[in-house]
Design brief:
This protein is mainly alpha-helical. It has one domain. Helix content is about 75%, strand content about 0%. The N and C termini lie far apart (about 105 Å). One of its GO terms (cellular component) is membrane. Keywords: Membrane, Transmembrane, Transmembrane helix.
């Protein structure tokens, strides 16, 4: 959207999901697509609408704002997920994990504070993106963990409806002139390559959120931001401020602590499930009437 001047974020998202659908159809033809669970998803249309808004508004946010402001907006997704999961599923997290999350969010805020370029419309788009993004991650995690959906099967179920909603969003959020874009080999290759990377990103993200939780998936995304800041400084001689480097290191430390606490909770839950439940044996009549049994035995011996 910057170098190629491709200013059509919703259409770019539409291309991503169209490539997803083509690849998933190929997997299904080759019998590589996992079988969907017999229980159908009653709110697949609503889920697809939320996916369309979450992905489309994310790219629109990147169009009107800087990457730093986009990462700052992602910070608000984490408490939104925690609050929504508590309201809907009564799911709580420990106080230690809350402290670790606070360190991660504060570190990300410090690391990206030097790149806060936005305008009023871009800020409104970012605010409108937060709730659909949080709900999208919660539904992905819940459907895979509770309803036994696999990531590819869920993508195959929801992608066609998501494409329909993206088509409906294009006239509202995309500027006109997409057909007049210079569709030469270089630009077309860049867009298609990005679409393939988008498929891998969505697949890996679905695997991660299905294996962990919605909150852990957001923390993983913040970890990616820290890797970009630190890796750019170490490998590509970028020069972020000292405060930004300290913030990235603090966020990496908070992410490590949060991951360690999550692994301990998972191991504790697994061990508690594996422990056999001991059912007390019923008392026999012989043990209850032990004295009577001994009397009868002694009498029979005398006889």
């Amino acid at each position: 959207m910057g170098r190629l001047e491709f200013n059509f974020p919703i259409f770019l998202t539409l291309i991503h999901y169209s490539i997803d659908w083509i690849l998933l159809a190929f997997f299904k033809t080759m019998s590589l697509l996992p079988v969907s669970p017999p229980k159908t998803t009653p709110f697949s249309s609503l889920f697809s609408l939320i996916m369309a808004f979450a992905s489309g508004l994310a790219n629109t946010c990147l169009k009107y704002n800087s990457v730093g402001f986009y990462q700052m907006a992602k910070i608000a997704v984490t408490p939104t997920i925690v609050f929504a999961e508590f309201i809907r599923f009564r799911k709580t997290i420990s106080f230690k994990k809350v402290l670790a999350l606070a360190v991660v969010l504060a570190g990300i805020a410090v690391a990206t504070v030097t790149d806060l370029e936005f305008n009023a419309f871009g800020a409104c788009i970012a605010i409108a993106w937060i709730i659909p993004s949080a709900i999208n991650k919660i539904l992905w995690s819940n459907l895979q963990q509770e309803a036994n959906w696999t990531s590819l099967a869920l993508m195959w179920k929801t992608t066609p409806i998501t494409i329909f909603f993206l088509l409906a969003l294009m006239p509202w959020l995309d500027p006109p002139g997409v057909l007049s874009f210079k569709w030469d080999i270089n630009n077309s290759t860049a867009v298609l390559t990005l679409a393939l990377l988008g498929f891998l990103l969505q697949w890996s993200g679905a695997l991660a959120v299905g294996a962990t939780s919605a909150t852990s998936h957001v923390v993983l995304g913040q970890f990616k931001t820290c890797v970009i800041v630190v890796g750019g400084y170490l490998l590509f001689n970028s020069d972020p401020r000292f405060v930004s480097r300290c913030g990235a290191v603090a966020a990496l430390g908070g992410t490590s602590v949060y991951t360690s606490l999550s692994l301990k909770e998972t191991n504790h839950q697994s061990s508690s499930k594996q422990l056999p439940t001991q059912i007390p044996l019923p008392k026999s009549k012989t043990s209850e009437n032990g004295s009577e049994g001994s009397t009868v035995t002694s009498t029979s011996n005398v006889v």
